[in-house]
């Protein structure tokens, strides 16, 4: 039997892309994980979730374990509505869909909006798993560069004007991570957020706002793009993975009720009602503002440790963006292919993610890498950067000095 003959043409086309997770390095034992975009293990509320499970089963017995689950599934939706309202995003029950994490939300939106004729615009660089999802539905993907103020809306407008003038299809939607972006850690300015909405109205496209890191500010959280949306053009995707626990798989889509209804059509019962009910109980018994303050304090301190270590141990002309929140620091090493550097880094006992995986055109990312300060502890961060510095230095020998070395602004 030739198994391949049974696959659909869409599946065959998707299999030509890099497999999911190809960007994840195989880590040797004892390797310091500056590649992992995971929460700090000490911040996962394991005991509190254990208590939530016990309380849920004590109060409801078998009910949460059935297909329809507990009434607390509805309660979770109300809790998320309240959290969104506190950030200026007001949605009804019909305008909110709970999903199995942010990736399912992004996939559902791609499924209802994209086909092989559709165009989608993305930031460059962008979240690699979103790229993987979009490439399963269309090959017509357009990259828009970012800088230290987020997506270049001037370049986006140039692209839109040119395509309209030439009679080419305009994007069905733009995918953006405006707050503490993955991988760069940059945040789109309020002016550009509003400009994005103006462009979406003028050129008739939607905005898929990925807000996975939106509450992890080191200071004050910027307002989501959705909070400015008066026309229903923004599909806001959020998650509790970064602020509670990723294994709970709790995400959502907030948007126009027709888009929610269409997403629900394809989502069917691909739910985790027990996980949702457990999360509802956890949130009922948690001072979430206090928890957010703890997360911000820890990640702010760990980011500061990383940045100080980079200043001390990484040689010139290495440069990076300084984030105001989130999990990541984006690094440029001029003249060095970070994919070729990685095996040596792993041998030295430190990992990172090569920048090429965050670009549609991977050759655009060869000089970049992503570091995470979220998972490793402070001692590991310092040791990891020392090791990385030792690996980088020989690669830079013989390279000409760059004309400009702004440690806050690598050029994507």
From TrEMBL:
Residues 31-382 form the Aminotransferase class I/classII large domain. Pfam families: Aminotran_1_2. The keyword Transferase applies. InterPro entries: Aminotransferase_I/II_large, Class-I_PLP-dep_aminotransf, PyrdxlP-dep_Trfase, PyrdxlP-dep_Trfase_major, PyrdxlP-dep_Trfase_small. GO terms for molecular function: pyridoxal phosphate binding; transaminase activity. GO terms for biological process: alpha-amino acid metabolic process. Keywords: Aminotransferase, Pyridoxal phosphate, Transferase. It comes from the Bacteria. Its cofactor is pyridoxal 5'-phosphate. This is Aminotransferase. It comes from Peribacillus simplex.
């Amino acid at each position: 039997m030739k198994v391949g003959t049974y696959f659909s043409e869409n599946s065959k086309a998707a299999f030509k892309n890099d497999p999911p997770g190809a960007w994840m390095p195989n880590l040797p034992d004892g390797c310091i994980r500056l590649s992992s975009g995971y929460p700090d293990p000490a911040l996962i509320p394991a005991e509190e979730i254990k208590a939530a499970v016990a309380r849920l089963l004590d109060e409801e017995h078998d009910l949460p374990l059935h297909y329809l689950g507990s009434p607390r599934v509805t309660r979770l939706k109300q809790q998320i509505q309240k959290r969104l309202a506190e950030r200026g995003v007001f949605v009804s029950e019909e305008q909110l869909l709970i999903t199995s994490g942010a990736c399912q939300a992004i996939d559902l939106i791609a499924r209802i909006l994209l086909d092989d004729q559709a165009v989608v615009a993305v930031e460059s660089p962008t979240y690699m798993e979103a790229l993987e999802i979009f490439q399963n539905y269309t090959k017509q993907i357009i990259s828009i560069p970012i800088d230290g103020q987020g997506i270049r809306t001037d370049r986006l407008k140039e692209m839109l004007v040119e395509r309209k003038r030439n009679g080419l299809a305009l994007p069905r939607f733009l995918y953006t991570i405006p707050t503490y972006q993955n991988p760069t850690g940059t945040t789109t300015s309020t002016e550009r957020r509003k400009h994005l909405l103006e462009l979406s109205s003028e050129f008739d496209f939607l905005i898929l706002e990925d807000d996975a890191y939106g509450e992890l500010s080191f200071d004050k959280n910027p307002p989501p793009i959705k909070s400015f949306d008066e026309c229903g053009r923004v599909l806001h995707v959020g998650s509790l993975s970064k602020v509670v626990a990723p294994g709970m798989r709790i995400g959502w889509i907030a948007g126009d009720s027709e888009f929610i209804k269409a997403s629900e059509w394809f989502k069917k019962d691909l739910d985790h009602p027990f996980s949702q009910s457990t999360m509802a109980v956890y949130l009922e018994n948690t001072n979430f503002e206090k928890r957010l303050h703890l997360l911000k304090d820890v990640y702010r301190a760990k980011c500061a440790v990383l940045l100080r270590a980079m200043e001390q141990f990484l040689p010139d002309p290495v440069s990076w963006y300084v984030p105001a929140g989130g999990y990541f620091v984006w690094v440029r090493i001029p003249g060095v292919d970070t994919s070729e550097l990685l095996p040596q880094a792993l041998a030295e006992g430190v990992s990172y993610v090569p920048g090429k995986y965050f670009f549609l055109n991977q050759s655009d990312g060869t000089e970049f890498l992503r570091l995470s300060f979220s998972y490793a502890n402070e001692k590991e961060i310092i040791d990891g950067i020392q090791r990385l510095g030792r690996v980088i230095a020989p690669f830079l020998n013989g390279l000409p000095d760059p004309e400009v070395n702004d440690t806050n602004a690598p050029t994507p």
